[in-house]
Give the backbone structure.
Amino acid sequence: MSKQISFSVRHDHTLIGLFEDERLVELILDRPDQESSVGNIYIGKVTKILENIQSAFVDLGIGKDGFLPGDDAFAGNRPRGRTRKPSLQSRLKSGQTIAVQVQKDEIADKGKKLSMDLSLPGRYLVLMPYHKKINISKRIVSKEERKRLEDILTGLKNSEDLGWIVRTSSEGVTKKELERDARDLLTKWKAITREIEKCKKPTLIHTELTPIEQVLRDHYSKDFNAILVDNLRVKQHIDRFIRSLSPMRLLQKKVTEYLEPDRLMERFGFRRELQKALDRRVWLKCGGYLIIEEAETLTAIDVNTGKNVKSGDQQKTIRQTNIEAAEEIIRQLRVRGIGGIIVIDFIDMKTKKDNSQVMQILEKGLSADKAASDVTTFSEIGLVQITRQRTGESLAQLLSEECPHCHGSGRILTHHSD
């Protein structure tokens, strides 16, 4: 599989596209006026504790208070077993200063979602300073490789009483590179702990990487055969950042390429794919189509046979449409940045074998998605539900605004004459 990344830089935004075999699979919008705070760490002050829902509001020194759910108002492992969880009031007091990390940006009228369980992601590892376990990605299936990685992490110096998550990208990585990543994270954590100890008022103490840098950290590997960018200044920054990632392993060949803006937008159909990512209707190769309806916390997707009526075998037509729909739905969730609850109404199939085939496609697609997700099998009325991690607004919410006439309903009243 060939992989490419495109960076289309404009004066008020940057579009970042991830392609697999020259087909867009993920789209990220970076806007300076809507800068994400996810991953940032603040010293905050508790302003209000809501006993009835066991949550708190926290002043971050940036205007609107953040929201701290009770389950995230701790540092370290959650209490397990039948032990009764201590109340939020016993853990936090109004006016108390605490270190918190942003998990979700503001969405609509909801403030930033916070957690006291801090984490620091690296290229291969995630440092969990309030944990003590080593957790290895489930996508690494080899027992020998899992043992090798655990041994390397166990033998790290200066990491006593700290927890680690070993990311999927660690598979096959040398001990030297893993130790380098770990040292960088430990250095960052030491600097953060110094700030936590000395800061007594709401302030930002750690900033996550920019979206461009996050994409390169999380996705770029030696498998990429092209990084396309239409801005020379940004190209220079990308080259420097890639060298900082892992100079010995990833710079076997120069892959960054400068293109004129119009040429870049036409490459791989980037412009066309962006427009399609905002359309309500998505056509499938077979002639069927999806209808995607986004609401604030729920997205409904309806699958239809459409023009796929050539085959005389009705069940074959339905199965083919549902299979193509399952593959396209996963791509659309990533491209559009859709999170929360997604309910899919597939066309009814007669056999459990067909249902199982569609579920396998969904599960395989979600396993390659970096956003955490869960999928439930067909319900009694033929619906499939996916829950997908949401850290901010979707592409449609970022690039469009509510219609002043229909106020987001998509419909207006018919005017009848008397």
